[in-house]
Design goal:
Subcellular location: Cell outer membrane
Organism: Bacteroides oleiciplenus YIT 12058
Structural class: alpha+beta
Mean pLDDT: 81
Radius of gyration: 41 Å
CATH architecture: Up-down Bundle
Number of helices: 10
CATH superfamily: Outer membrane efflux proteins (OEP)
Main location: membrane
Oligomer: single chain
Shape: elongated
Low-confidence stretches: 1-28
Strand order of the largest sheet: 2-5-7-8
Strand content: 5-15%
Order of helices and strands: HEHHEEEEHHEHHEEHHH
Largest sheet: 4 strands, antiparallel
Protein name: TolC family type I secretion outer membrane protein
CATH class: Mainly Alpha
Family: Belongs to the outer membrane factor (OMF) (TC 1.B.17) family.
CATH topology: Outer membrane efflux proteins (OEP)
Length: 441
C-alpha cells in the first residue's frame, strides 16, 4: 500500500512537471488569428505546386505567341564572298585549253522575303491549338488550387478540435481539482475512503496529460500550416471560431449538379480537350489543300555570272508560289481516321466525367446534410450530458452514488462536447467539399 501511494505521488509530480514545460514553451510562442479567406490566400500564394503550374501556364502562353508569329513574313538576309578559281575552256574537245582572264574574288548580297497567304487554315489552326492548350493549363491550375484549399481546410479544421479539446480539458482539470479538494475534506471527515482520493488523483493526472497532448498537437498542426503558408514555424495558428457557427444555405441537388457542369475545372478541361481534337481534324484537312505564298527578293553580286566581267550586278524579283502536296491524298487518310476517333474518345471521357460529377455531388450533398443533422443531435446530447453530470455530482456529494458514476458522467460529458466540435468542423468541411465538387472553391 505504501508502494502504491509513493508511485501515485511520483506520477502526479511527473504529470505536473510535464504539464508546466509545454505551457512555458507555448507561452514563448506568438499566436495569430487566421481566417479562412487568409488561409486560402496565403496557401495559394506560397504553394510550390501552384508556382510550378503558373510557369507551365506561362509556357503555354509563349507557345501561343510563337504560333502567331507564323503569320508574319519570313525574311532572310545573306552575304557570301570567296575566291574564284581559274576557269578552263576547251574549244576543241579536250585539247587546246584556254584560260581566260577573270576576277579572283566574288561577292553576293541578298535579301529574300516569303509571306504565306493561304495554307488551308493550317496557320490559324495551330494558333487555335496553342490557345486551347493555354486555357487547359489555366484550368488545371485552378483545379489544383481547389485541391490545395481543401487540404489546408482539413488541417485548419483539425485545429478547431485540438483547441476545443484543450478548452474542455482545462475546465475538467479545474473541476477535478475542486472535486479532489472536496474528496480530501470528506475523507478527513470519514465520509469517503482513500480509494476515492486515489481515483480522483489519477483522473486529474490523466486530464493533465491529455491537456499536454492537446497543446503538443496544436503546436504540431500549427507548424505544418506555417510551412504551407510561408509563415514563421514557431507561430501558433488560432482558427476563427465564428466559422463554426456561420449559417449555411443548402441548395437542392440538381442546382449543384448544374453548377458543376458549368464551373467544375475538370468539366471545362474536358470540353477544351474536345475542341482541341476537333481542331486536329481541321489541321489534317488543311494538308489536302494547296498553299499559296508571296515571295520577293533582291540580289547584289559581282562578277557578272554570264561574262565573268568584274562588275556589280543588282536584280530583284517578286511573285506568287502555289504548291500542292499530292502525297497528302494517301498519307493523310489514316491521320483523319485517328483524329475522328480521338474526338469520339474525348466525348466519351466527357460523359464519364459527368457521371463521376453526379456521384461526387450526391455523396458530398448527402454527407453535408448528414453532418448538419449530427450537429443538431449532438447539441441535445451535450445538454443531456451536462444535466446528467450535474445530477450525479450532487448525488455523489450527498453520498447517494459512487465516484465511478461521477467519473463516468464526466467522461460522457467530455466525449459529447468533443463530438459536437468534430461534428461542427465536419459540417464546414463537407460544405467546402460540396463547393469543390461543383467548382466553386
Amino acid at each position: 500500500m505504501r508502494y502504491l501511494a509513493s508511485f501515485n505521488i511520483h506520477r502526479l509530480l511527473l504529470a505536473n512537471i510535464l504539464l508546466v514545460v509545454p505551457l512555458w514553451t507555448v507561452a514563448q510562442q506568438s499566436a495569430r488569428l487566421l481566417s479562412v479567406d487568409e488561409l486560402f490566400r496565403l496557401g495559394t500564394e506560397n504553394s510550390l505546386q501552384l508556382k510550378k503550374n503558373k510557369i507551365q501556364e506561362a509556357i503555354s502562353g509563349e507557345r501561343e505567341k510563337s504560333a502567331r508569329t507564323n503569320l508574319l513574313p519570313d525574311i532572310q538576309v545573306g552575304a557570301s564572298a570567296g575566291v574564284i578559281g581559274q576557269p578552263i575552256i576547251f574549244q576543241r574537245g579536250m585539247s587546246h585549253p584556254v584560260r581566260p582572264e577573270t576576277p579572283d574574288w566574288s561577292q553576293n548580297y541578298n535579301i529574300n522575303l516569303t509571306q504565306p497567304l493561304y495554307q488551308g487554315g493550317k496557320l490559324q489552326g495551330k494558333i487555335r491549338a496553342a490557345k486551347l492548350q493555354k486555357q487547359i493549363a489555366a484550368l488545371s491550375n485552378a483545379d489544383n488550387e481547389a485541391d490545395i484549399k481543401l487540404v489546408l481546410l482539413q488541417q485548419y479544421m483539425t485545429l478547431f478540435s485540438y483547441y476545443k479539446q484543450q478548452e474542455v480539458l482545462s475546465r475538467n482539470i479545474e473541476e477535478s481539482e475542486h472535486r479532489l479538494k472536496d474528496i480530501r475534506r470528506m475523507k478527513r471527515e470519514g465520509i469517503v475512503t482513500r480509494n476515492d482520493e486515489i481515483r480522483s488523483e489519477l483522473q486529474l493526472t490523466n486530464d493533465r496529460l491529455a491537456y499536454q497532448e492537446a497543446e503538443n498537437s496544436i503546436a504540431i498542426a500549427s507548424q505544418q500550416l506555417d510551412i504551407l503558408l510561408g509563415l514563421d514555424e514557431s507561430l501558433l495558428i488560432t482558427p476563427d471560431t465564428t466559422l463554426l457557427y456561420t449559417a449555411i444555405n443548402l441548395l437542392d441537388y440538381d442546382t449543384y449538379v448544374q453548377l458543376a457542369y458549368n464551373n467544375y475545372p475538370g468539366m471545362q478541361i474536358a470540353r477544351q480537350q474536345i475542341l482541341l481534337v476537333e481542331n486536329d481534324i481541321k489541321l489534317v484537312k488543311a494538308d489536302y489543300l494547296p498553299s499559296l505564298s508571296l515571295h520577293a527578293g533582291n540580289t547584289l553580286a559581282r562578277p557578272l555570272s554570264s561574262t565573268m566581267a568584274d562588275l556589280y550586278n543588282n536584280n530583284w524579283n517578286i511573285g506568287l508560289s502555289l504548291t500542292y502536296n499530292l502525297s497528302s491524298l494517301y498519307q493523310n487518310k489514316y491521320k483523319m481516321h485517328e483524329a475522328r476517333q480521338s474526338v469520339q474518345l474525348q466525348k466519351y471521357a466527357e460523359e464519364l466525367l459527368m457521371q463521376d460529377i453526379r456521384i461526387s455531388i450526391r455523396t458530398a450533398y448527402t454527407r453535408h446534410k448528414e453532418a448538419m443533422e449530427r450537429v443538431e443531435a449532438l447539441k441535445l446530447s451535450v445538454r443531456q450530458a451536462e444535466e446528467n453530470y450535474r445530477i450525479v455530482q450532487n448525488r455523489y456529494l450527498n453520498q447517494l452514488s459512487i465516484l465511478t458514476d461521477l467519473l463516468d458522467a464526466s467522461s460522457v460529458r467530455l466525449d459529447a462536447e468533443l463530438q459536437l466540435t468534430v461534428a461542427r468542423t465536419q459540417t464546414i468541411y463537407t460544405y467546402y467539399e460540396l463547393q469543390r465538387a461543383c467548382g466553386n472553391l
